[in-house]
Amino acid sequence: MIPGVTIKYTAASLVTALSTLFFVNPADASTDISVDGNTINMNEPILTENDRTLVPVRFVSEELGAEVDWNAEEREVEIETAQGDTIKLTIDNEMVELNGETYSMDVQAGINNERTYLPVRHVAELMHSNVHFANGHVHINEVSLHEVQPGENAENISTNYDVSTSDLMERNQMTDQSLSPGEMLKTVIPTVLAEDLVFEEETEEAVSEASTADIDALARLIHLEAQGEPVEGKIAVGNVVQNRVDNGNYPNTLEGVIRQSGQFTPVMTGAYDSATASATSIEAATRALEGENVVEGALYFHNPNVTSTAFFNNKPTIDVIGNHRFVR
Questions:
Q1: pTM as predicted
Q2: Taking the C-alpha atoms of 143, 149, 152 and 158 in order, what is their torsion angle to the nearest 10 degrees?
Q3: Domains along the chain?
Q4: Is residue 171 predicted with pLDDT exceeding 90?
């Protein structure tokens, strides 16, 4: 159990109160779920129903730092998230309550083996996390809150994150677009809340197998640029390189972006050519090249404690992960 996380389920209350079962199939044995790069070891199975991946709400919530309480009389799960949200789910009901507002899901919360299950996308998004599916694995990545910079408002922040202004305002319970520097905003818009309510199918991302040479090249850069950073931060550094490849204003190959003049310090100093990547950096490079993107649109990163220039400071923040600020 993670320190600071309180799970208040009791065996007695569950056995007496949870009699409803919904009949689903166990997921493929190779399916696993990782949260911020760490595979979850769950005591309960991952399930599938109508091509949806269903997960025990408690285990994923716990990994994302939430507190979960079970109300046996009301057959209701109440979750207090790490971002300060309150979520309420009622068994055999498709409605979800988020911070006092009620929204409709495309599926009811159900019980299997005395555990509350929901599609993994709903669980992740409500916990301010992104989810994607690749190579039989489900990757959940918690998204940091956005720190408002001077001159920013709801409209330009929503543009940077490719969400509607009204959704951003509703997600943060804002009454107008004015913001103060230093405010922290939630930028992951749960599908149940979105203005354009479309429930996405869970599809494997169309990615090609990364070559050994590309993995090595990117992993060595990640190793040098993101030493001591969390796995998500390492993946994000790899994402910046790949985002540039796809951008059109940079070389259109991985090697070309990495070796572009004046861009990456380890390349300029020569350290890159003799570097040996760590196992974690190789994992991060592989995941980035296979399509996992935790900083969509980011083209630069810097450590504000080391480099704080107008060039970086005037660019919109995509995310802050570890010691790095990622901007576009």
A1: 0.60
A2: -10
A3: 11-142 (3.30.457.10), 146-185 (3.10.350), 212-327 (1.10.10.2520)
A4: yes
